[in-house]
Amino acid sequence: MNSVARFSISVIALSAMTACGGFRQNSQSADDYGQGEGGNTTFAATPVQERETTIWEIFAPSNEEVELKVNKYIWTASLETLDFLPIESVDPFSGVITTGYGTPPGGGQAYRATIFVRDPALDARSLHVAMQRRNGRAVPDSTVRAVEDAILARARQLRIRDGRF
Question: Which InterPro entries match (predicted)?
Answer without folding.
Answer: DUF3576
